[in-house]
Amino acid sequence: MIIYGSGGHAKVIISCIVANRDKVDLIFDDIPGRKEIYGMTVSGFYNSDILPDQKLIIAIGDNSVRRKISNQVKHPFGITIHPSCIIDKTVKLGEGTVVLHNAVIQADAIIGRHVIINTSVSVDHDCVISDFVHLAPGVILSGNVYVGENTLVGVGSIIAPGLTIGKNCFIAAGSVVTKDIPDGTMVRGNPAKIISYHL
Ligand SMILES: CC(=O)SCCNC(=O)CCNC(=O)[C@H](O)C(C)(C)COP(=O)(O)OP(=O)(O)OC[C@H]1O[C@@H](n2cnc3c(N)ncnc32)[C@H](O)[C@@H]1OP(=O)(O)O
């Protein structure tokens, strides 16, 4: 597997790959000066000619950056799932998606491309998670929740059943969402209230 990115999120993804006894073949990072991560050498700028058939995961937590890079990468995209996860056999996972330590995904959930299902996230039955979403550690989605593209659901947030969270939203840490959230809004609190229309 090739990793694109060498920050903290990359460490967790490498941990996941190593736990699966897979090999990290190469690490790209466009930020100069990053030489080593997790005991592995960082090779520098992305180069589509190196190991062109090897699968790649974009290990960058920022949804917009991950989306931008995905349009530039020529390698095929991989998936990694930590062995501690419980994922129902009916679940669909898109390319480039990572399911990190201790996450649970229940029946008939659909997870898009380049999604981050972070540590100890719970995604219940029939949820639909769109491309480039990040569900931060400890998020709990009840059944039948829809999350639009590019949205960040912050650490420890809880989403009540059947709700629609728009695209490009920011759900602040610890929010309890009890109503649908329109596109491009930031919400926080319990119950979560709209703080700003940030996009
Ligand atoms: C592995 C990983 O780490 S993945 C990480 C994924 N990222 C996240 O989950 C993002 C989490 N971060 C947050 O949610 C932060 O709380 C933020 C970004 C919303 C803070 O936003 P800021 O605008 O910087 O808030 P700031 O610190 O200026 O506080 C402004 C006010 O909002 C309050 N506030 C800040 N965050 C929250 C929150 N999550 N919920 C409720 N109130 C909050 C503050 O207490 C403060 O209140 P006051 O004016 O009465 O003193």
Keywords:
199 residues, Rossmann fold, UDP N-Acetylglucosamine Acyltransferase, domain 1, 8-stranded mixed sheet, 28% strand, globular, binds acetyl coenzyme *A, Trans_hexapeptide_repeat
What does this structure look like?
- The chain has 199 residues and is mainly beta.
- The protein folds into two domains: 2-70, Rossmann fold (3-Layer(aba) Sandwich); 80-188, Hexapeptide repeat proteins (UDP N-Acetylglucosamine Acyltransferase, domain 1, 3 Solenoid), CATH 2.160.10.
- The protein is 11% helix and 28% strand.
- The chain is built from two helices and 24 strands.
- It has helices at 8-19, 63-72, and strands at 2-4, 26-28, 36-37, 40-41, 56-58, 80-81, 86-87, 92-93, 98-99, 104-105, 110-111, 116-117, 122-123, 128-129, 134-135, 140-141, 146-147, 152-153, 158-159, 164-165, 170-171, 176-177, 185-188, 193-197.
- The strands form five sheets. It has an eight-stranded mixed β-sheet with strand order 6-9-12-15-18-21-23-24, with helices on one face. Strands 7-10-13-16-19-22 form a six-stranded parallel β-sheet, with no helix packed on it.
- The longest helix is centred in the first third of the chain and has 12 residues, at 8-19.
- It is globular.
- The mean pLDDT is 96.
- Acetyl coenzyme *A (ACO) binds next to loops.
- Belongs to the transferase hexapeptide repeat family.
- Pfam families: Hexapep, PglD_N.
- Residues 2-73 form the PglD N-terminal domain.
- This is Acetyltransferase.
